[in-house]
Every structure is written in C-alpha cells, then in structure tokens.
Amino acid sequence: METVINTIIGALVLSSMYILVALGFALLLSIMGVLNFAHGAIYMVGGYICYQFAVEFGLNQWLSLLLSTLIMGAFGVLLERVCFRPFYGDMYRTIVMTIAIVLVLETTVNVLVGVHIRSLPAFVPGIIKAGAISLSAERLVTFFIGGVLLLGLTLFIKKAKAGQQMLAVSQEPEGAVLQGIDIFRISAVACAMGCALAAVAGSLMGAIFELSPFMGDYMLVKAIQLVILSGIGSIGGVLAGGLIVGSIDAVLPLFASGAVTQAVGLGIIIVLLLIRPRGLFGREVT
Amino acid sequence: MHLEVIGLTKFFGGLAAINDIDIHVDHGEIVGLIGPNGAGKTTLFNLITGFLRPTKGKIAFEGKDITGKKPHLIAKLGIGRTFQLVPLFADFSVLQNVVASFHLRPRSRVWEAFLNTGTYRRKEEYILKRSEEILLLLGLHEVKNVLAKNLPHGYQKMLGMARALAVDPTLLLLDEPIGGMNANEIVFTRAAIEKMRHQGVSILLVEHNMQIMDICDRVVVINFGQKIADGTLSEVRENEKVIRAYFGGEGAA
Amino acid sequence: MIETEISLRASGRLARIVAYTAVLVISLLLPLWIRSPYLIHVFNLTLINIIAASSLRLIAVSGQLSLGHAGFMSIGAYTAGGLAKHLGWAAWITIPVGAVATMIVAILVGYLFVRLRAIYFSMVSLFFGIGVLAVNQVCEKFTGGYAGLIGVPVMFAGSKVQNYYFFIGLTVFSLLALYRIETCRIGVTLKAIAQSHLVASSVGINEAGYRVFAMGVGCFFVGLSGAAYAHYFAVLSHSSFNFLASVNMLVYVLVGGIGSFAGPIVGTTVLIIIPELFRMLKAYVPYLFAAIMIIVIFVMPEGLVGLPGQIISWIKGSRERKDTHAP
User: Which CATH class is domain A2-275?
Assistant: First the structure.
C-alpha cells in the first residue's frame, strides 16, 4: 500500500516537474517556432544557481530558489532579445544558436563547479506519517509547488491579457499577428516564464535527485517527448502529456529496466503518431 | 463525359462545405465555376484533385472512379491544376519551376537519372525545350532565370499555370487564374487558355472576374456548397437564384 | 534557403572541379607530410564524419531535418561489429551488410513517419536516435549494451595510414553518389518537395515515396560510415552514437552551410580539426566550438562555404568605395 502511494506521488512529482520544463519549451516552440535545445541547460543552471546561493553563500534555501527563478527569468528575456529575435524565421541558424548556448552553459558550469555530483539539501526535510504510511515531505512539497505554479499559469493564460495573447499566438500565429499582437513582446514574456519555470524545476529536482552539468540533456528529451505527444499549439495538451509520461516513468521502472522504459516510451510515441500525426491536441504545421 | 462529379459532399465537423453537388465537364468544354466567397469552389477543386477526401459522393474521370485517390496519382491520370494562393517552388527560378514539374511525362526511372543514361539525357533535353515553349506561350520567357519568390504576383500566377501545363493534362483545373493580374497579363492568360482549348484540353475554371467568363461554354454557379444554376452565361445571368446570391447582400465583393 | 544547383554556369563548374580535385590530390599526398599516427587518426574520423554529415544533408534537402542521424550510424556500426565479432564475418561483407541493414530500418522508419511534417519529424527523429540506443541496451547480449562492444576485428591490422586510404576511397565513393543524386532529376524532385509538397503532388510527384527514398539513401551512407568505423575503432560504445553525436553531425552541416554540397565537408573538417589543434584547452574546448558556431551564424549567412565569396564581395565593395572617393 505504501509502495502504491509512494509510486503515485512519484508519478505526480515527475509529471509536474516534466510539465514545468516542457511548458517553457512548448511555448517557445508554438509561439516562435524555436526548437530550444538550450532549455535543458537552463533547467540545469537554475538548479546550480540555487545551489550556489543556498550552499555556497548560505542564504535561506527558499530565497535562493526565488533568486534563481528571477535570474533565469531575466536571462530568458535576454535570450529572446539577443539570440532568438535576430534569427526569427530562420530555423537552421536558430538551432545552431541554441546549441551554442547549451555548450556555453554546460561548459561554464562544468568548469566552475566541476563534474562531481552535488546535491541540494531538501527544501523540506523529513518524513510525514499518515497513519501507517511514511511519505517523503520533500516530494509532497515539490508536487504541491508544481501544482500551484501550473494552476497559476493556467489562470494567467485564461485571465491575463498577456496570457490570452500567448494562447492566441501559439494556436494561430498568423491570425494573432493580424490582430495586432506584438509577437516579439509576447515571445519575451513566454521565454522569461519558460526559463523561470525551468529554474524552479531544476532547483526542486536538484534537491530530490542530484545536480550534474548534464542533467539538462535528460530533461530536454523529456520535454520533447511531451510536446510530441501533446502536439504543437496546445498548452493544455502538455499537461495531459506530462501526466502520461510522468506516470510511465514512475511506474515502469518498477517492473523493467531503464532501457526498456525508454524503449517503451519510444514505442508509445510511434504508435500515437501513426494514428495521429500531429499529436493528441496539436495543430497542423505547414 | 470527361469529368463527372456525382452527389459530392464534404463535411468539416458539422458544417457541409460541399453539399450534394453534381457537375460535369465534357471533352473539350470550358466550364466556369462561379459563386460568392466561401461558396466552396476551392474545396471542390481540392476534392477533385485528391487533396481532400469527400464524405460522400463519387468523382469519375474518363469513366474511371478517382474518388479519394492521392493527388500525385490524379495528376498522373492527366488532371492539372493551379492554386488560388499560388504556392511555388520559391527558391527555384522560373525555368526550374517548369522543368521540375515535368516529372510525369516523360518519365525517367530513378536509376536512369542516377546513371545519366542516354535516354535520360534525351528526355531532359526534351523537357528543357518544352519548358521554354511553355514559358514563351505565357510571356514568362524574359524572366526565366528569376527566382520564383521574387516575381510579381501576376507573374507568379502565370507560373502556376505553366506548371500545370507541364503535366500535359487533358483536364485543367484553374483556380482564379487571373486574380490580381493587370490587363497585359490577362491577355496572355486568355491566349494560353484558348490555345489549350484548341488542343482539346477540357477546362474547369473558377473566377470572380467576369472578364474571363465569356470564354466559357457553360457556367455553373454554386453557393453555400450547393449548385444553384448550370447553363450558358446568358441563361445563368438571368437566373433569379443567381441574382439573389450575388446581389442579395452577402458574399459579393 | 536551399538554392538549387541545376544551372551551373560554366565557370562555376570549372572552379568546382578544380577545387575538388585539388583537395583530393592533397588528401592523397597528406601521409607523406604528416607522420603522426594520431593526426592521421583525426583525419580518419573526419572522413567518416564527412560521409555521415553529407548523407544527413541529402535527407535535409528533401525537407526532413533528422536529429537522430547518429542513431542510424549506430545501426550500421553495431550490425557490422556484431556480425564480425560473434559470427566471424569478414569486414568486406559486414560493412555492406551494415549499410543495407541501416537502409532497411530507415525505409521502415521513414515510411512510418512520412506523414510528419517539418518540426514534428525533427523531434521524432531525435527521439528515435535515443530510442535506438535504448533498444541497443535491451539487446545487450549481442551489442554489449552500455558497457560497449569490444573486440571487433580491425581492418589492415590497425594501420592508420592504410585505413586512411580506405576511408578516402569510401568517402570519394559516397560523395560521388550523393552528388550525382542531388544534381540529377532526383535531386530536383527532392528539392521541389522540400519547397512545396502541395505543388509537388499536383505535378505528379509521389511526395511520400521520395521522402522515404531520401531517408533510405541517406541512412545507407551513414550506416556505411558506421560500419566502417566499427572495423576501425574496434570498440563501440553508446557515447559515440548518442544525442550529442547527432547534434554534432547537424552542426557540421549547418555551420558548413546547408545550401551547398560542400557545406558538410567544410563544416566537418573545420569543426573537427580546429578543436583538435586546440585540444590543450581541455575542458574549455566547447567554448571554441560555440565561438565558431556563433561567429558563423552572425557573420556568414551561407555558412563557412560562403566565406570565400563573402571575402571577394567585400574586396570588390571596398575597391568600389575607394573609387568613389577619388578626387
């Protein structure tokens, strides 16, 4: 029973973290058409900045999380302005740009901090007992934060003007431009948000698992897996996709090796795309 | 009958874009298809040429059922088409656009092309010659080395027609062939259409611009996905339903 | 973005032939000047990657940007390596078999994914590249899994120079084939599909069929390079064929210039040789890589291949500017 509950919580934790990272990636993809290879690296850097403030400088860990989020959010704005805007519409050069960014970020962390595995201490250490069941407080809190952020994001998209504009652009880029929406401003907002969310995920995951300069690569693949599953242009679809992938990744390793999990993940995507080439909720891409 | 469309219906979700339409084109005829914006003309073209699958109904070409066949197979049977919004091989020159469109006739096998056989070389020479002829016909000869994306709109439309001609069609579907053209370009296009008719090509033509309608033997009027008139131009002009459709306050530009 | 090469002007053509011939002659004579086996080894790796990158470009020319190309290379490598190690087959059999096996998988995959357009295809191909390694791990009895496949018999008793000439031959063969495909009608058709699949279909081009064809041919050659690599390096591990490797191949093509046949060749050579020359930088080498990439995308819109042309235009331009300022 305890295993079942812990597995469910594990699935929820993975799902929510995957979704936080994948959303930023998906937003950039559907709004600017950018395949941001650097997104995983941003997630990783977010985790390391939090570590830097919390462990090296000794600040309160929650404050460190906030600082990391703000810094990465600002970085996102810079990214859009300096790296993506000059090559808007040019897929090839944008790809090269994002790969260059990954190299710079990963190498910098590698050189400054080294490849030794580090770990953030838990934000909320300890165990919570519910009756006879022991649950990790950290994981519960992580899932809770993830859920709250996603809820906040959903509200933002539904209520805030910028959010509505973002939705419009991601679903129908040409139509949105005709309506007078400033694509570059919305892109900047989306990029900032995406990076901020990734930073949160990086810090939280860094506390549950561990930090390494290349942990971003894994998350990038997860984000892509999610976006393929849900399709481009649907933000709600990312949530659904995240739950599916997170659950698979939490449940399957109990029964089979990691490699089989990956292979099964691939198989599911293949089958889905055979039936529905634009993902569960995606729009047509010309 | 060259082309026969029977009971064709296409639903998008709950909306019937095309509703139980019967149209036919006889050999050597030029049939005009007119109707207000959104009446379903381009949808009809897409259905006939295989870019869309009909929900119901049948399309027959020279007696054979071509309903739901893939576009490239329909082109192979001898149906050529132009597009309203002029997609192009944008990074090819005008000449390359036409040369590339000579994919079907004459057909070169992949290994013939790879090994550069004599047959292949001769076919390519023939293709080059024919391409130049088509460009001359449409007045595009002077711009043959200009990249397609740099052409003015009217030229791009004529390039679209040049491409359709490369298929060596027996039936030509023209979607707004003179839309956005100046008087000079229209002259060229008319001449080309006349030449096609002279060579026995049947033509189904969609247009808003009345300037080209007199070229048609017959005119079919559709509105809201349904056929509302079918006859010669003068017959149709007097038809009450047509007058209501065009001057009844909706759709007309 | 991809310009066509159908109409090669006579002077351009001559320049091209001269350039390629010069490069070939220099390459053939290289071992006379360069004695270090390590450098020859670097050149061997460069040649293998040239084949891989050029084959990636052919697939890209048909409008499909594959981000999992290293995964296909691993199919060729592990097939050849596995057959040689477990069944004792000779290299001259396993290498073609490896290439053909890769081609078959690519045709199946290409057919499966043919309805995917543009960026969907890219993302799925990325995922496929990773998935191949996962499947590889599952079959670890044959492939050695994460630990790797060791003990593949080497060709030419491991002589770097002899392998070098073999790879030159393989590269010349592959490049000739790829060049011919691209410049004949097949290439025209592929480029047409990439520009507008609607128009292509309307003129009778079997768009799906040709895209699968491009995948098949492109992956045949990357499988070939992988199989040859297996018999050269003797040890196969996942780290040679992972996502990073696919990304590298892509960068070689894009930085070299995707619009030109020579792009992958130049890109691969520059991006392998320069970091090698500066390998004393150790952990800082990726910075150099990134710097080259950033300079190229900001300053050279046509990639590295466009550099000579850009310099010539710049010289011409400054001469004109001087003239207009003459008193």
Answer: mainly alpha
Q: At what angle do helices B118-137 and B94-101 cross, to 10 degrees?
A: 120
Q: How many CB atoms lie within 10 A of CB B13?
A: 6
Domain ranges for chain C, please list them.
10-284
CA closest to C116 among chain A residues = A277
pLDDT of residue A98: 93
Retrieve residue A153's tokens. Answer: 């994001």
B118 in reach of chain C (CB within 8 A): no
B48 touches B206 (CB < 8 A): no
CA distance C115 to chain A (A): 6
Domains detected in chain B: 3-247 (3.40.50.300)
The residue length of chain A stands at 286
CB A235, CB A27: distance < 8 Å: yes
Question: What's the mean per-residue pLDDT of chain C?
Answer: 87
pLDDT at position A62: 86
Q: Is residue C122 within 8 Å of C66, Cβ to Cβ?
A: yes
| Nearest-angstrom CA–CA distance, C70 and B223 | 54
Predicted local distance difference test score (pLDDT) of residue C327: 55
Cβ proximity of B70 and C205 under 8 Å: no
Nearest chain C residue to A97 by CA: give it.
C294
Tell me A284's DSSP state.
Answer: P
Specify the CATH number for C10-284; select among 1.10.3210, 1.20.1260, 1.10.357, 1.10.3470: 1.10.3470
Q: Confirm or reject contact between C294 and chain B (CB < 8 A).
A: no
CB atoms inside a 10 Å sphere around CB C115? 14
Q: Which residues of chain A have a pLDDT value below 50?
A: 286
**Backbone φ, ψ for residue B6 (5° rounding):** -125, 120
Contact predicate B172/B27, CB 8 Å: no
C120 to chain A, any CB pair closer than 8 A? The answer is yes
pLDDT confidence band for C221 (50 / 70 / 90): very high
pLDDT score recorded for residue A234? 75
Tell me which residue of B124, B89, B88 sits closest to C183, measured CA to CA: B124
The CA distance from C179 to the nearest CA of chain B, in Å, is 10
Q: What does pTM read for this prediction?
A: 0.88
3-class secondary structure, C46: helix
3-state secondary structure string across chain B:
CCEEEEEEEEEECCEEEEEEEEEEECCCCEEEEECCCCCCHHHHHHHHCCCCCCCEEEEEECCEECCCCCHHHHHHCCEEECCCCCCCCCCCEHHHHHHHHCCCCCCCCHHHHHHCCHHHHHHHHHHHHHHHHHHHHCCCHHHCCCEHHHCCHHHHHHHHHHHHHHCCCCEEEEECCCCCCCHHHHHHHHHHHHHHHHCCCEEEEECCCHHHHHHCCEEEEEECCEEEEEECHHHHHHCHHHHHHHHCCCCCC
Q: What is the predicted pLDDT for the residue at A185? A: 85
Task: Work out the pLDDT band at C49, boundaries 50, 70, 90.
Answer: very high
Other C-beta atoms lying within 10 Å of the C-beta of residue C239: 11
Q: Select from A98, A99, A275 the residue whose CB has the most chain C CBs within 10 Å, as the one to mutate to test that interface.
A: A99
Q: Which chains touch A (3 or more CB pairs under 8 A)?
A: C
CA distance C85 to C309: 48
Angstroms from C191 CA to nearest CA on chain B: 9
Residue B141 structure tokens: 């000869």
Provide the residue ranges of all domains of chain A, joining segments of one domain with +. 2-275
pLDDT mean over B92-121: 86
